[in-house]
Amino acid sequence: MKPKTKENIHKAFIGEAKAYFRLQAYAQRAQDEEIPQIALLFRAIAEAERVHATRQLNLVKDLIVKDTDTNLELSFQREKSVSENVYPDFIKDAEEEGEIAAALVFSHARDAEGSHAKLYERAIMNVIKDQVKAYQVCKVCGYVTDKKIPKKCPVCSAPPEKFKTIES
Ligand SMILES: [Fe+2]
Ligand SMILES: [Fe+2]
């Protein structure tokens, strides 16, 4: 693929993905303001932006989606790099600017990415136990475990009811 088009696809994808999340938040707000017709409109357009994002991603899929062994390895490397390099820098900047809420969100993300890296590493080493039927995801911080739902999230201390089960 030619470079300009490839770059534009990337930009378009990010724009559409952002729009999807923004419109979902607008829909939630309209719901809270008890304007269901507008909530519905935002949800419909959000779905349409998701279609755009998916189509754009499909244009470059062959460039970015490899075989599963490679995808696992790349995912492991990305998690490691964001938790060891990217987020620590973001945390430092947020602390320097006194942005306490952002620093907390970044530090939760850093720690949760560590849990993702561990799960990928286990998968790469081929030690996923056959009996893993479900993963538990903390809806507050994104911590993931293949064990039972903990009494409190080891990253953000959220209670058990904040966990979502992802099962096969
Ligand atoms: Fe992650
Ligand atoms: Fe958590």
Shape: globular
Bound molecules: fe (ii) ion
Number of separate helices: 5
Count of individual beta strands: 3
Overall mean pLDDT stands at: 95
Strand order of the largest sheet: 2-1-3
Low-confidence stretches: none
- First-last Cα distance: 36 Å
Structural class: mainly alpha
Biggest sheet features: 3 strands, antiparallel
Q: What percentage of amino acids are in beta strands?
A: 5-15%
Helix content: 55-70%
Radius of gyration: 19 Å
Number of domains: 2
State the order of secondary-structure elements, H for helix, E for strand: HHHHHEEE
Textual characterization of the structure:
Strand 1 (134-138) and strand 2 form a beta hairpin. Helix 1 (3-32) packs antiparallel against helix 2 (36-59). This protein is 67% helix and 7% strand. The protein has 2 domains: 3-64, Up-down Bundle (Ferritin); 68-167. By secondary structure, the chain is mainly alpha-helical. A 3-stranded antiparallel beta sheet has the order 2-1-3. Bound molecules: fe (ii) ion (FE2) (2 copies).
Quick rundown:
The chain has 168 residues and is mostly helical.
How is the topology of this model organized?
Layout: H1 3-32, H2 36-59, H3 61-64, H4 68-96, H5 100-124, E1 134-138, E2 144-145, E3 163-167
Antiparallel strand pairs: 1-2, 1-3
Helix pairs in contact: 1-2, 4-5
The structure holds fe (ii) ion (2 copies).
Record keyword descriptors for this entry:
mainly alpha; 3 strands; 3-stranded antiparallel β-sheet; 2 domains; binds fe (ii) ion; 5 helices; globular; 168 residues; Ferritin
